[in-house]
Here is the input.
Amino acid sequence: MANHRRAPRSLLRNGAVRAMAGRLSWGLGDQAVSSLTNFAVGLYVARELGTFAFGIFSLAWVTYGVVLNISRGLATDPLMVRFSAVPEDRWRLGVASASGTAIGVGCATGLVSLVAGLAAGGPLGNAFVALAVVLPGLLLQDAWRFAFFARGQGKKAFLNDVVCGVALMPALFIAGRIGTVVAFVLAWGIAAALAAVYGWFQTGILPHPRELVGWLRSQRDLSVRYLVENVSNSGASQLRAYGLGAIAGITAVGAVRGAEQLLGPFLALLMGLSLVTVAEGARVLQRAPHRLKHFCMILGGGQAAAALCWGLGLFLLLPDSAGRWVMGSVWDSSSPLILPVTLAVVGASFATGAAAGLRALGAAPRSLRSQLIASLFYVTFGITGAFLGGAPGSAWGVAAATLTGSIVWWWQLRIGLREYVPPTPDDAGANETTIVFAPIGINETTVVFEPIKLPIKE
Here is the structure.
């Protein structure tokens, strides 16, 4: 009789593990392709152009990161909240409006980039003019990815990123022959535009940019919050990069970004986990609230330990000859920064555990407070470090900022756990859970979603 009682529980446990593995697989696969593609682009550009030109490319890159988070906050984050568990016809209408909004954001921010580029002139200005051309395609390709995840079609998002990666190879080869920052920005954007066209064939949905105003009006209760939280993270990275460039020169920006690029493969894993970890935290909360803290500790501690191992491996084991082969002349200025950049990623990784817990709890005010404080630390410490010691000073300042910021995140989680009141049966069905996604990474894009309830299917 005892064996009979234990068997169903064991099967349920095994089924839950298999279901979790299935949910992880496509998110990890898609983000791995996306992030590793970005990693390869960064290394190739660094190798081909040198530290100064790579610094210019990096400024365009971090600017794109801010624009991407604006687009997500206004377009795809509300799409994920309100069009994830709906009939297909409603999902298609939502995708048409959200993808059209992404294009509209790309055109509006592209116009700003164009004006800024023409005003700046020179190689830096030319890079921002090129960025203006490619922004609509870049944002549309990203919008398709989240539309697929909203529909539970992670495989299609994966395939779309594969198309983008394949298109990048010949584009980068041609850009390498030309040898300018503009050529590399255009190559990166054209590959994304081709994947965006492929996304149109995958969905059969025509984006509706004319719906931008209506979409913003109908989603303003969500989009304002997302916009603030998304931009506070990526905007901090942009301000730090601009400040470092103004204080220590564009070469310093290239040196710091080169060191960050070396953490790219690890960050690919980190970003892939961000697509599912908060959802899993919400499931833990629904089944056993007292275990959420342990789940977050394992999640954050495991990622921090992995980041430390990866960074120390690079710092201690990668020969200078191999580094120069991978990154060219950028290696000489970036390699001394590997240790502080590693510590910065360790701090950010540890914070993701607390961020996942806060969003699983639905503690949006505490999450937003933590993000704003951490972003303030990032900008302040990073720019102060640049004043005191150039690129190395800025790198160590950011390391101190992320480690300090992680303390803020965990303190807010501790308070959030004390305040949490489990829902009564009248408030939530026995087969429902809260699904949200947390921001993650350092100098990486942010994914933030409103808590929603979806059925748990084992």
In short: The chain has a mean pLDDT of 82.
